[in-house]
């Protein structure tokens, strides 16, 4: 497996291994947003692996979904809520500008994926998207 797939497989496993059924309010809302982003990434990952059946409109829809959720990150993280079972670090609310910049970087990277014309272009766009997930999680998420 290429490193990019190992990374996304690890993310997928991480989400299923830890249930967050008792999250509420702002914490639940931002976790749901992240889960939608992850679901869209899975769909993109499948498309990145198929040169023959590349489906531009499916790719465009999934990448647009990521853009939409990335755009909402500043709003869903606006309230400082560290209720359990959050994995958010308190530093987010001390470094809101830097945090929101990473959200904007995700949105731009997803915009490039939305315009990918084939699996290779999508693969490289996904690499750039993955860098933004990693950068933000390593700084602002307890478990990454
Ligand atoms: C701007 C920062 C930022 C970016 C960019 C980001 N994340 Fe997150 N992500 C977080 C934070 C913070 C949490 C922890 C939220 C919490 O537990 O309250 C999180 C949590 C998650 C979770 C766990 C959700 C749950 O149910 O607990 C998944 C899955 C996830 N992110 C996937 C992704 C993927 C995939 C990407 C890239 C496509 C991404 N994230 C990009 C900040 C970010």
TrEMBL record:
Keywords: Electron transport, Heme, Iron, Metal-binding, Signal, Transport
Posttranslational mods: Binds 1 heme group per subunit.
Residues that, per the record, bind heme c: 133, 136-137
CC terms in the record's Gene Ontology section: periplasmic space
Keyword Electron transport set for record: yes
Any GO molecular function: electron transfer activity
Biological process (GO), any one: electron transport chain
Protein name, as recorded: Cytochrome C
Keyword Secreted: no
Signal peptide as annotated in the record: 1-19
Domain of life, per lineage: Bacteria
Entry-linked InterPro entries: Cyt_c/b562 (IPR010980), Cyt_c_II (IPR002321), Cyt_c_prime (IPR012127), Cyt_c_prime_subgr (IPR015984)
Pfam families referenced in this protein's UniProt entry, alphabetically: Cytochrom_C_2
Organism the protein comes from: Paramylibacter kogurei
